Amino acid sequence: MYTQGLLHAKDDDRAAPEPADRLARFQARIDAEEKIEPNDWMPEAYRRTLVRMISQHAHSEIVGMLPEGNWLTRAPSLRRKAALLAKVQDEGGHGLYLYAAAETLGVSREELMEQLLLGKAKYSSIFNYPTLSWADIGAIGWLVDGAAIMNQIPLCRCSYGPYARAMIRICKEESFHQRQGFEIMLTLARGTSEQKAMAQDALDRWWWPSLMMFGPSDTQSQHSDASLRWKIKRFSNDELRQKFVDATVPQGRFLGLAFPDADLRYDEAAGHWRFGAIDWAEFRAVLAGNGPCNRQRLAQRSAADERGRWVRAAATAHAEKRRARAAE
Ligand code: BYC
Questions:
Q1: Whose C-alpha lies nearest to ligand 1, atom 34?
Q2: What is the mean pLDDT of residues 105-118?
Q3: Which of 15, 28, 239, 290 lies 20 to 30 A from 248 at CA?
């Protein structure tokens, strides 16, 4: 949609030094809360940051379909199956809006997909963990979508127009996802002792990886300063992580489940739930490609890409035929 009207900057324009007055005018627009649109001038580093973030986000959506898709054939009832199917389809749709938003910055979807399949692009660490039981579908909705909403609501106010607009619809859908997950957890937590144990086991395994979704601590985050200055990000990684913990701990207590953190305690004076140390070595291992499911996820995505090749070829051939007929 956007790419058709995009006036692509030439590569040599991008390499040219960026005049200080232009940079200052750009920052003034950001400070005045104006939206930056695809054909507006932007610093090359701003453009690159957005391509990185939006494409990582798009990849996360489509890789995120895999662990949940794993349970589509084994959902415990027709109602659960229909809701999960809708959720997994929503994630595919989110990927599409996000790839379209990234394309407005002058990269093609094919390029981005190639980077993913070659293992050169990142996607969220969380999707490298396995879904071992039905309760994991509840935990993903409650915790992973809950963390996603906390991170993504501020992105609705991102300074780049196409990303901000894509996020508005995505966040509406994510809030339905979060509720369907919490409802699964509530049903299990109020069920038999075996069902409650399943819910507890899922919380035990998904809690820490959910906290890692927010990225490295502020002292280790390389990109936060620039992204906050450009109003791409509105809160730091640690601020969002804390907001998530504060919102989620009361929900877990309502479920009657225990968090796998002996150091978790309420800090009355600060009004925050304090939590224990995150295992950053595990986070780094997952990012380096050595999480429990990294290889499996990429192999599945590659196979899906291969299987869809004839569909893309057929759609392209059909579009060309129509264009030729219209030109006759
Ligand atoms: N996993 O300087 P930092 C979803 C990387 S989708 C992997 O703090 P930044 C959902 C980071 O990319 C969830 N990598 O970076 C979908 C950087 O590496 P590079 C995805 C991570 O960008 C389906 C390096 O670590 N959400 O929720 O300022 C179903 C240093 O980090 C992670 C988004 O993508 C991670 N967890 O902040 C259900 C939202 N964390 O690029 C749910 C948009 C950090 O230099 N993205 N890294 O090689 C963001 O908000 C930010 O990019 C992040 C990281 C907060 C994730």
A1: 57
A2: 96
A3: 290
